[in-house]
Every structure is written in structure tokens, then in C-alpha cells.
């Protein structure tokens, strides 16, 4: 990893307003973004992810804490003095300029010579696969094409860090999925540190090297997509990333109890009331199992079916099975197995 493009956020806080109207948008956020990686800030609206992105860009000044790029403290630097560029949700392209003129605009403002500028524009258009559109007005481009132009323009000055503020949200589902792959390709080919903001869990899992899950101005967990999904740090993360069942249990003697049913635990857990978390796709159908439930509904999902059921104590539980199985009927009792390796014990609700 490149030390010069590593980003450090140290105890960053941000408050808006004063007195009774003060809003704590960020509270003592500390994280490290490795140079040359694809790092995602993920969370619901109002969690602080865009505020943190604006602190990195220099559009906002932290109330407390520091922002470092490599060994350089950039906390007080204005945006135009940071080797950082931003791609906005709206793209912010110049409608009266051609594609090539948009891509070269920042280079022209930097005083880059015409020949060198043109060569760099050609290189960027090739990178985003827009060479054939160089002379076309941006107003004649589709949403996906405009996004590629915005990316090329942001990459042209060779920033050390590229910030992306929900740039795919305006695209339709099919194009959004295509651009997820394209963004990851661009990050790998350029080696630039990408910091991506989204509320879409699938986007974060698809593209990221590491993810910071945020809620209420704080980082809840940082890890790889696999770590975040398979081993959520708390109930918020488990509920926000994908789907989870949350079952009230009592922990004792290395096991969790749901009524009279005992479930062995792979890792130690504090005794007493707790919450058992398990993904719907991890629950197994097992005829004759000690843990049983009554089917209340089934939902066909194309490549899978979701079965909704009710345990004996009334707790609702969902499990996902291949679409090829024989669907159980409402009212039918089914046996369930919760694999030890798929069970996680979290704090009680």
C-alpha cells in the first residue's frame, strides 16, 4: 500500500448549530484508509457518512480532530490545495462543453500545456471507454455516459484520493450494476485511493476492499465485506447489512437456549439474556429436528424461496432455500437446524 495516499481520520467530530439546536453529525471518528484501496462509507441517511466525505474533501472543517494524507496534515487546507478530487451525485458537468472539454477543464485551469492536456484527455477517455464521444456535447449523453465523463474529469489531474458521493444513485438498476464493476476496474487500473459513500449494502459488498459501517455519527464496524457480513460487531450492523433473524435466547454453559432447545456455540459468550443472530440462508430444513416452527408464508424470489415461520414461543423466523425444493404449505410444521458456525450471539434487545 502507498503511504502517500493513505488517509488517516483521527478523532474527527463535527457539530452544526449552537445551543439547543446543535446537531452532532460526527462524534470522535477514527479510521485509516489504506493507500490504493477501495474504501466505502456505508450507512443510512443522516449517519454522518457524507459529512465525513466533506471533511476529507475540505468542504467542511472539523469541529475537532485531524485529517491526514500520508504524513501531511490537511485539516485546515482548502479543497483546491488538497490532492483530492470529488465525483458528485449530480456529476456537475458543463453542458455547453464537449466531452473532451469537460475532461480537460481541470487541466486547463492548472495551466497544463495544450499538447500534454490533449494526451491526458485521450488517455482518460480510453480508460472510461468514451473515446468515440470526445466531441459530443454532454447534454446528448445518457446518464451512464455522463457518469463516465465525470469520472474521467476527476481522474485527469491524477489525484491521490478520489471521493465518490453516491455517484450511482441516479442510474437504473441494470446500469448501476454495470457501473459497480466499472468503478472497481478503474480503481484497480489507476491505483488511486477511492473513498465511496453509499447507503446501498449491495454496492458496498460488491466493490469494496474495506467498509466502515456508520450510524448516528459513529463508526460501528470496519472490515472486509466478508467480515462485515459474516461477523457483524453488533445488532445494528447485522440488521443493516443483508437480512438477519434476531432470536431472544438465554446463554448458559456454552450454549444458547430457545425455550427447551439447546444450541451449542462456537465462541464463548457471557451468560444471561442475549440475542441470537443468524442469516436466513444459513438455516437448514431438517425433518424431525428438535427445533420446529409453523410455516406462515412463502415468497418466490426466482432463484430461491423465502419461508416465513413461527417458533413455538411466537417468535418469527425467516429462512431462504433453493427454488427447487417442494414448498411447504401454510400451517405445516417444519424442523430447523441452526448450524453452530452460522450462529452469532449479540447483546440482548
UniProtKB/TrEMBL annotation:
<keyword id="KW-1278">Translocase</keyword>
<dbReference type="InterPro" id="IPR050093">
    <property type="entry name" value="ABC_SmlMolc_Importer"/>
</dbReference>
<keyword id="KW-0813">Transport</keyword>
<dbReference type="InterPro" id="IPR027417">
    <property type="entry name" value="P-loop_NTPase"/>
</dbReference>
<dbReference type="InterPro" id="IPR005893">
    <property type="entry name" value="PotA-like"/>
</dbReference>
<comment type="similarity">
    <text>Belongs to the ABC transporter superfamily. Spermidine/putrescine importer (TC 3.A.1.11.1) family.</text>
</comment>
<comment type="function">
    <text>Part of the ABC transporter complex PotABCD involved in spermidine/putrescine import. Responsible for energy coupling to the transport system.</text>
</comment>
<dbReference type="InterPro" id="IPR017879">
    <property type="entry name" value="PotA_ATP-bd"/>
</dbReference>
<comment type="subunit">
    <text>The complex is composed of two ATP-binding proteins (PotA), two transmembrane proteins (PotB and PotC) and a solute-binding protein (PotD).</text>
</comment>
<keyword id="KW-0067">ATP-binding</keyword>
<protein>
    <recommendedName>
        <fullName>Spermidine/putrescine import ATP-binding protein PotA</fullName>
        <ecNumber>7.6.2.11</ecNumber>
    </recommendedName>
</protein>
<keyword id="KW-0547">Nucleotide-binding</keyword>
<dbReference type="InterPro" id="IPR013611">
    <property type="entry name" value="Transp-assoc_OB_typ2"/>
</dbReference>
<dbReference type="Pfam" id="PF00005">
    <property type="entry name" value="ABC_tran"/>
</dbReference>
<feature type="domain" description="ABC transporter">
    <location>
        <begin position="7"/>
        <end position="241"/>
    </location>
</feature>
<keyword id="KW-1003">Cell membrane</keyword>
<dbReference type="InterPro" id="IPR003439">
    <property type="entry name" value="ABC_transporter-like_ATP-bd"/>
</dbReference>
<dbReference type="InterPro" id="IPR008995">
    <property type="entry name" value="Mo/tungstate-bd_C_term_dom"/>
</dbReference>
<dbReference type="InterPro" id="IPR003593">
    <property type="entry name" value="AAA+_ATPase"/>
</dbReference>
<dbReference type="InterPro" id="IPR017871">
    <property type="entry name" value="ABC_transporter-like_CS"/>
</dbReference>
<keyword id="KW-0472">Membrane</keyword>
<dbReference type="Pfam" id="PF08402">
    <property type="entry name" value="TOBE_2"/>
</dbReference>
<dbReference type="GO" id="GO:0005524">
    <property type="term" value="F:ATP binding"/>
</dbReference>
